[in-house]
Amino acid sequence: MSKDNAYTDTEKIKKIMDDRGSYRLRYVLEKHHGVSKNDISKVRLDGHNFKIDVWVGDDRMIRFKSKGTTNVLSSMPHEDGLMEMKLDPALNQTIYRIIDDYN
Fold this sequence. Notes:
Blueprint: E1 4-7, H1 10-18, H2 23-33, E2 40-46, E3 51-56, E4 60-67, E5 71-75, E6 83-87, H3 89-102
Helix pairs in contact: 2-3
């Protein structure tokens, strides 16, 4: 598994976000953060720390970090820099799957 990859190519970002294994990430981005897949300007995959950074424009980053097998540490909607721990096994598995498939 590679250590770190960042994608800015819109076609590659759409491929990652359209993957059937990315449904839970798309849902959380749309419902909790108000971000559609077309708003995403960059996706960074960190294989060592099992985290995904999703950039919207140049100034907003939303982070999802796997913690164990069921929890996810994620950026809080509308709170710059604050993170919260959530019990979300589906999102946790999505993080692992995306990193495994695209990193």
